[in-house]
Design a protein that fits this description.
It is a single chain. The protein is of the alpha+beta class. It is built from 10 helices and 27 strands. It has helices spanning 49-54, 72-75, 79-93, 100-104, 131-142, 216-222, 235-241, 264-267, 323-331, 359-362, and strands spanning 26-30, 36-42, 45-48, 107-109, 114-116, 124-127, 158-160, 166-168, 173-174, 177-180, 189-192, 196-197, 200-206, 223-231, 233-234, 255-257, 262-263, 271-272, 292-293, 296-303, 309-315, 342-344, 370-371, 377-378, 385-394, 399-401, 405-410. The strands form 7 sheets. Strands 6, 7, 8, 13, 14, 16, 17 and 22 form an 8-stranded mixed beta sheet that branches. Strands 9, 20, 21, 25, 26 and 27 form a 6-stranded mixed beta sheet that branches. A hairpin with a 5-residue loop joins β23 (370-371) and β24 (377-378). α6 crosses α9 (323-331). It is globular, with a radius of gyration of 21 Å. It starts with 25 loop residues before the first strand and ends in a 6-residue tail after the last strand.
Length: 416
């Protein structure tokens, strides 16, 4: 197992930090005048690489890579530059580095800044690629014998979502209005969603363009990094609108991502294989090696900022299809992929009740409400609830984390 790489920044050597030198995730923060700056997390500090570029302290192939205040232009430079930049940062921030005095000037306390979207989302696609989640949901609506759709074990199912509604952690989310129709109703009504939910997911960020079909290995090479992702879902809106097509307004309210992009390079030591296949995949989807990651995940729910209850614990290694397989299938029709495309993994649930990644599953469609530490119960989200997703991979005496992915549910707006 990989050991901790020690830094001259003391907080980066703590076993409790999510941001040791082994990690070095990329984010964007607002400085004192409100401007957006690209930064790298290290311990409890942020290295201001936008300022370093302005001062001529970085040697990059093109000028003004960080001027836009997002990481898209850097992604566009390609995997070789990604690797060189990471190596430069590790050497400069490592214990005993001769650049310590120089770089101390560019460190900003993490506690003093507001985080912003780390990249410009080009397109957003959400998948339905967790077997336990798909089986649970299918069982609720179709029974265990017909839980999985006939295509599910052959193809990573997905739908095109809204890039415009992807928001960074800390952004409040408003309960949506939509058409609702229960089984006992003769006609739908337009009202606030009563069955609003979370979905615990990982998001993969595409860092290179494609034009035509790609292999699973090529897809993996194109992935820049990963974020935590909460794909907020209005279950009652979806139940009425998805006949016969897929999610539309039920998934368009918001998708929250964590503020730090953990690079694929940082996750390399934690690779693991996808599960054994129940049906052999077609050749274009078969993987050349391990494409998943061993990342512990959890969800906390705090009602009206009271005590938080951890309502779910699972692991990213429960996914049936990897992000590389999802990307390969996405491009298989010739669909061009762009720098900044975001792929949602689909809800990540495990085999036990406490591993379920949505309230739909945890409360079994509302029939088995959860009891929180405050004594309150939940079948679906109530106004004032704050959801926090957390995740990290574990090394030998260190963690590689993403930062919290959090959002608070606000009441629906009044309408005439």
């Amino acid at each position: 197992m990989t050991d901790l790489i020690r830094s001259w920044i003391d907080s980066a050597n703590s076993a409790e930090t999510e941001f040791p030198l082994n990690n070095l995730p990329y984010g964007v923060f607002r400085n004192a005048d409100g401007g957006l700056r690209c930064g790298v997390a290290i311990g409890d500090m942020i290295l201001n690489v936008s300022r370093m570029e302005e001062d001529g302290k970085l040697d990059l192939p093109k000028p003004s890579i960080f001027a836009a205040g997002v990481w898209n232009d850097f992604m566009d430079l390609g995997p070789n530059v990604w690797a060189d930049f990471r190596e430069l940062l590790i050497k400069a921030l490592a214990e005993g580095s001769p650049r310590q005095k120089e770089l101390e000037f560019y460190l900003v306390p993490m506690s003093s800044v507001e985080m912003a979207m780390p990249f410009r989302v080009s397109e957003y696609t959400d998948f339905y690629a967790g077997r336990h989640h798909a089986f649970n949901v299918g069982t609720m609506f179709r029974g265990a014998e017909n839980a999985l759709p006939p295509n599910w074990l052959h193809i990573p199912i997905g739908y095109n979502g809204r890039a415009s509604s992807v928001v960074v952690s800390g952004t409040d989310v408003r309960r949506p209005w939509g058409q609702l129709k229960g089984p006992e109703m003769d006609a739908p009504v337009f009202a606030p969603s009563k069955r609003f939910d979370l979905e615990l997911e990982m998001g993969a960020i595409v860092g290179q363009h494609s034009d035509g079909p790609i292999s699973v290995q090529e897809a993996d090479d194109m992935i820049f990094g990963y974020v935590l992702l909460n794909d907020w879902s209005a279950r009652d809106i979806q139940a009425w609108e998805y006949q016969p097509l897929g999610p539309f307004q039920a998934k368009a309210t918001a998708t929250t991502i964590s503020p730090w992009i953990v690079t694929k390079a940082a996750l390399e030591p934690f690779r693991t294989a996808t599960p054994e296949r129940e049906k052999e995949l077609l050749p274009y989807l078969q993987e050349p090696g391990p494409m998943l990651y061993d990342i512990d995940l959890e969800v906390g729910l705090a009602p009206n900022d009271k005590a938080e209850t951890t309502i779910s614990r699972t692991n990213y290694n429960e996914m049936y299809y990897s992000a590389a397989q999802q990307l390969t299938h996405h491009a298989s029709s010739g669909c061009p992929m762009r720098v900044g495309d975001l792929l949602g993994s689909g809800t990540i649930s495990g085999p036990e009740k406490g591993n379920r990644g949505s309230l739909l599953e945890l409360s079994w469609g509302g029939k088995e409400p959860l009891t929180l530490e405050t004594g309150e119960t939940r079948s679906f989200l109530e106004d004032g609830d704050r959801l926090t997703l957390r995740g990290h991979a574990r090394g030998a005496g260190f963690r590689v984390g993403f930062g919290a992915c959090t959002g608070k549910l606000l009441p629906a707006l009044e309408r005439n």
